[in-house]
Design brief:
The structure holds 2 protein chains of 2 kinds. By secondary structure, chain A is α/β, with parallel strands linked by helices. Chain A is built from 19 helices and 20 strands. Chain A is 36% helix and 16% strand. In chain A, helix 5 runs parallel beside helix 16. Classes of the chains: A alpha/beta, B alpha+beta. The interface between A and B is large, with 114 and 94 residues. The structure holds flavin-adenine dinucleotide, iron/sulfur cluster (2 copies) and FE2/S2 (inorganic) cluster (FES). One iron/sulfur cluster binds next to helix 4 and helix 5 of chain B.
């Protein structure tokens, strides 16, 4: 139920709806799409990436001197969790040995393991929480694939590279778009149920930045359906794939030739450090939403703390496009309990319109995400003051969902968006009849560890796939291209890492790079008590935390985790 | 909640407000694994546990109602019922007594979807325990997603795989139904198996998908790709902003 103080604005939305419906049915854009200059203007003035303090030069490592998102630079310049001196014996006698070590059991990780098994290679998936506790599980809207006859993979290429402001690595965009139709088929062969038309052809919809209908979907549970299918398949191969849950990796291990040779894991239950020796290693640790960059609420899962970036960077891998962050245009603003939760872009793809407090359109609903987000922030800013304010101190714009049934027929919304409906039904809001209140939410790590089309990094034996990687989306990823990304590159990582591992030899294992990193911190005069990877964010109230520190101050591992919880980017004291 | 939408410059101020809000918010008593804590009334169970000072390690995944990591059992004062819910989307209530169930013991069958047939008997062969269903509907009452769990288990027994797939589509695999089932059935595994069987064997084939895959393999787009990949920013820019839009 919406509180009374919002009713005036809600009435305005209803008043303007018939006119906007007519506009939507006309087939013309309901609002003029921005040209290049208009995009540039709104981005530079309102996108959070361009607010003062959003970026700073990083002082250590391969990207030294480059501007990087401040919260990311902070964790790159932090201390390691391990004491290299104490690791020697565990490096000589590793706790686990495997062909491939896969760090992160989300979509990319599971695909890598399945593909490796098909190539006859054994793998170990070490993951932070349970397998599938991942951003992959949460995707709602869909995946881009040029499957419709009106479309083509090269059109998909153009849309993706334009969305990324022409900075994406071309060879990565090519394999992304070229592999897409096959990915659809491969997933279907594993048992994914796609939304289809009566004749069996794929149902396709628009998403932000698409010039052809290209979004394939599984109602609004694409992530859950794909993730559970992949997990089930992983578990069907116990002879080829072993799984260690609640054992996140905290540092990579190299050999004396500088090749990646495994990782140090940290058992969250027993607080033990464990070592893995692997012929090849794949980082598929996903994104960083839980860093709460710029204090934004996030759509991401609990373990999205950018750990892969930290580990790979310390070992010497190059990062790409780490100065840009994706804010999803439509995160929930009301009710407070679901603030930040994702409202899928498919709502706009199906005809939902963003409106200001007067019920007026102010932006074309299908601009690329960064542009759409910046436009919403502008509408709510003091420059325009057209946002709808809630008593909890948030501001947002309406997302007019009732239009969807009017456009596609009664019952469409409930069938196509069961998850979305359920989310709001819980609070007495029927999105078939009433709009949702939305504001941008921290959503996606655009950049990451630089890879090529074989998922290789600058470190031999280290492969990266999925959201942890950088290059494919430039500085702005389009909707549906990251589900595609982890499918395409998860498979590629599995394939190419397997090929590599077949002939790989390993020398003496070491973690000398951790020592070098510590020396670099000293040399640069960096004074920090931050320890990374962060592993988990903390939502403990500040006062409780201070008392916890006093109590546990001497236990090294726990201490390091506690100290790491005091990150400047985190803000969670108040409920 | 976890954070808000304002930029960081205002953080100090907001945190002050946050502290004040903590004092002002209406508080309720909840019993977390038997121990009383005072938490804000508008908190979800997950946020209440964190507010009380716990760092959740098991029992939180997506935090948005998709992953099923946060199954919780609770009782309310004056109510004989044992309730079930997801900690991340269920609000606390005065007097609530709760325990998270981060893992439900279960064994998954090992199978090859490719070799299975979507026959009447497949479900019973892979998960014979399904035959024990006494149609008591306890599972449906326990489901935080409000699914008709009994109906899909029964559909599975009849071999109606399409119906199982449809009714179990939104299952988050929290295992709460399995925990409550008097016949020790694990319904969501039947759901996952059925969805995979449907997707693999009962789908309608898409001809244009086949055609597109064939075109890609035959190199139909190679020349166009080669051209696009070496194109300068200016020409790409022109091409991109000049492209036509499918309505
Ligand atoms: C709410 C939401 C909705 C989305 N909707 C869409 C959509 O509609 N379309 C689209 O294209 N994209 C969407 N995305 C984006 C997309 O889902 C993700 O980018 C993609 O799933 C990432 O897959 P991944 O395998 O790289 O990472 P993840 O799926 O996040 O997997 C990473 C795994 O690594 C684990 N991990 C992390 N650190 C460590 C460590 N140190 N050691 C071991 N394991 C670790 C994590 O716990 C996790 O299990 C959405 C994202 C979110 C959050
Ligand atoms: S069917 Fe069972 S496992 Fe699935 S969501 Fe409902 S209670 Fe949870
Ligand atoms: S609880 Fe068990 S026995 Fe009862 S209806 Fe559900 S599956 Fe059947
Ligand atoms: S944490 Fe994923 S469903 Fe609650």
């Amino acid at each position: 139920m919406y509180p009374d103080y919002l009713s005036e604005s809600l009435q305005a939305v209803e008043r303007t709806r018939p006119g906007r419906l007519e506009l939507a049915m006309s087939g013309q854009p309901v609002y003029p799409p921005m040209n290049a200059d208009e995009r540039k203007d709104v981005l530079s003035k309102y996108h959070p990436d361009f607010t003062p303090g959003a970026k700073r030069p990083v002082r250590v490592g391969p990207n030294r001197g480059e501007d990087i998102t401040t919260e990311v630079a902070d964790i790159l310049e932090a201390h390691s969790m391990i004491e290299p001196k104490l690791m020697d014996i565990h490096l000589r006698e590793p706790d686990y040995e495997t062909d491939l070590l896969i760090i992160g059991g989300g979509g990319a990780g599971c695909w890598a393991a399945i593909t490796a098994a098909r190539n006859g290679m054994k793998s170990l998936i070490a993951t932070k929480l349970r397998m599938g506790d991942a951003n992959t599980m949460m995707s709602e809207g869909g995946m881009q694939a040029a499957v419709s006859p009106t479309d083509s993979p090269t059109r998909h290429y153009l849309d993706a590279i334009g969305g990324g402001h022409f900075e994406n690595k071309p060879e990565l965009v090519r394999v992304l778009t070229e592999d897409a139709p096959e990915v659809v088929r491969e997933l279907e062969n594993l048992g994914v149920i796609w939304d289809k038309m009566g004749d069996g052809s794929m149902q396709v919809l628009h998403g932000g930045g698409t010039s052809r209908k290209r979004m394939v979907s599984c109602r609004d549970y694409i992530g859950a359906i794909i993730m559970r299918t992949l997990m089930d398949e992983v578990k069907n191969h116990p002879d080829m794939i072993s799984l260690r849950e609640f054992e996140p990796a905290v540092e990579l291990i190299l050999d004396d030739k500088g090749r990646c040779a495994g990782a140090v894991l940290y058992d969250l239950d027993t607080e033990q450090f464990l070592t893995v020796r692997a012929k090849a290693t794949i980082i598929s640790t996903g994104g960083f939403g839980r860093l709460h960059i710029r204090g934004f609420a996030t759509t991401n899962h609990y373990g999205a703390t950018g750990d892969g970036l930290v580990m790979a960077y310390r070992a010497g891998a190059n990062l790409k496009f780490m100065d840009s962050v994706q804010y999803h245009p439509t995160g929930a603003v009301f009710p407070e309990q679901i603030a930040g939760f994702l409202i899928t872009e498919k709502i706009r793809g199906a005809g939902g319109q963003p409106l200001n407090k007067f019920g007026e359109l102010f932006v074309w609903p299908r601009e690329p995400r960064d542009v759409e987000s910046a436009a919403i922030i502008r509408e709510c800013s003091s420059d325009r003051n057209n946002g709808v304010d809630t008593f909890a101190g948030r501001s947002g714009v309406w997302l007019d969902s009732p239009l969807i049934d009017m456009i596609h027929g009664a019952g469409y919304t409930r069938h196509q968006f069961p998850g979305m409906c359920r989310q709001f039904d819980r609070f007495g809001i029927d999105i078939v009849k009433q709009p949702m209140l939305v504001y941008p939410s921290l959503h996606y790590q655009n950049g990451g560890i630089e890879i090529n089309e074989r998922c290789e990094t600058s470190i031999p034996g280290l492969f990266v796939a999925g959201e942890a990687s950088g290059g494919v989306h430039g500085r702005n990823r389009l909707m549906g291209n990251s589900v595609l990304d982890y499918n395409v590159f998860g498979r590629r990582a599995g394939r190419h890492a397997s090929e590599y591992a077949k002939s790989a030899t390993l020398g003496r294992l070491n973690v000398d790079h951790v020592r070098t990193h510590a020396e670099e911190l000293v040399r640069e005069g960096i004074d920090t008590d931050l320890v990374s990877p962060l592993i988990l964010p903390s939502y403990t109230p500040e006062d409780v935390k201070i008392q916890q520190l006093a109590r546990l101050g001497n236990v090294p591992a726990r201490h390091s985790m506690l100290r790491s919880r005091f990150t400047p980017g985190e803000r969670k004291t108040h409920l | 909640m976890e954070s808000d939408n304002r930029p960081r410059q205002e953080e100090g101020k907001r945190q002050e407000e946050g502290k004040r809000q903590r004092v002002r918010a209406n508080m309720v008593n909840v019993f977390i694994m038997g121990k009383r804590h005072v938490v804000p009334e508008h908190a979800t169970i997950m946020r209440a546990i964190e507010y009380a000072g716990h760092q959740i390690i098991r029992g939180a995944g997506c935090r948005e109602g998709f992953c099923g990591a946060c199954g919780t059992l609770y009782r309310l004062p004056g109510d004989y019922k044992l309730h079930t819910g997801l900690a991340c989307t269920t609000l606390v209530k005065e007097g609530m007594s709760l325990t998270q169930i981060p893992a439900v013991p279960m064994e998954k069958a090992i199978y090859d979807v490719e070799k299975l047939r979507p026959d009447v008997n497949t479900i019973l062969e892979v998960y014979p325990v399904a035959a024990r269903c006494v149609a008591c509907n306890t599972c449906s009452k326990a489901c935080p997603q409000q699914l008709q769990v009994m109906d899909y288990v029964q559909a599975g027994l009849r071999g109606d795989i399409a119906l199982v797939a449809d009714l179990s589509f939104d299952c988050v695999a929290c295992g709460l139904c399995a925990l409550r089932c008097p016949a020790e059935i694990i319904p969501h595994e039947i759901g996952i198996l059925s969805k995979r069987l449907f997707g693999r064997h009962l789908r309608k084939e898409s001809r244009e998908l086949d055609e597109r895959i064939r075109e890609v393999r035959a190199g139909k787009f190679d020349a166009e790709y080669d051209e696009l990949m070496v194109m300068g920013k200016d020409s790409l820019n022109k091409l991109y902003y000049g492209r036509d839009m499918e309505p």
